[in-house]
Amino acid sequence: MTKIGYHASHEQFAPSALRRYVQQAEAAGFDCAKSSDHFHPWSERQAQSGFAWSWLGATMQATSLPFGIISAPGYRYHPAVLAQAAATIGEMFPDRLAWLALGSGENLNESITGRAWPEKAERNALLKECVDVTRALFAGETVTHRGRITVIEAKLWSRPETPVPIFGAAVTEETAAFVGGWADGLLMTGGRPDDIRKRIEAFRESGGEGKPVVVQDAICWASTEDEAIALGMDQWVWAVVGGDAAWDLRRPKDFDAASKHVSEDDLRALIPVSSSLQFHADRLSEIVELGIDELHLLQVGRNHEAFIDTFGAHVLPRLRA
What we know:
321 residues, two-stranded antiparallel ribbon, 11 strands, 18% strand
């Protein structure tokens, strides 16, 4: 049965509030949780971005849910430091850091160190080097590597008995195929069920057959239609910025400027916006029927207390049925 998870959006909430929401999600019947890992929010209206790894330790101590987290090694994080963070969490909470998803990142977060931001092919090449370093460190090896990233005699002394699985993060079919050959599983964005299916197929046909698939799906719900669209327009219009621009823009205000003319119809074409619980349940059921392992719900509005309790009571039972 597909596990239904709660996505913890650091870009929208203070870390203390987000910890409370995960506790509430566990009480409401969510099976697992997923954490983002940003240095900046996408929009100045979101106005938050706590450090995910210290937050993760505190929140796992306060709950019993399994977690996944997505990070981008090679720029803001040296892969050895990121591996140490994940191994420490894995040792403290055995088997509860269910996966560490690694992706090629966004300029929005990674530019802060001053490292040049290359094209996608080069970012993928750097990502693969970082994955190899991370996997060797998880295995207890002493690692020296000189390439796009440099590591000199690094060894993780504190590790979990079972290494944390390394997933690949993908938004496109091309990236899903790229990670299929080396990842222990796939984390991808949601959207139209047919588009999700194509990404899953690309992953499985390129080495991912039999490996777990996790989907993070953005939705917007509120008790009225007017409130739902207002919440979405306030918090998520930046996401209409597509193509390479989404990976290359550097500051939250750049996303705000690029999305200032987005209409309500544009937003509805991007994510499902509705006050109807039946609408959301029916659509999410189509994604569950694709045979995925986890479906994490990213509620883009700020009304998370109402969202968690309402979906826990009325939507999760329908998805499990």
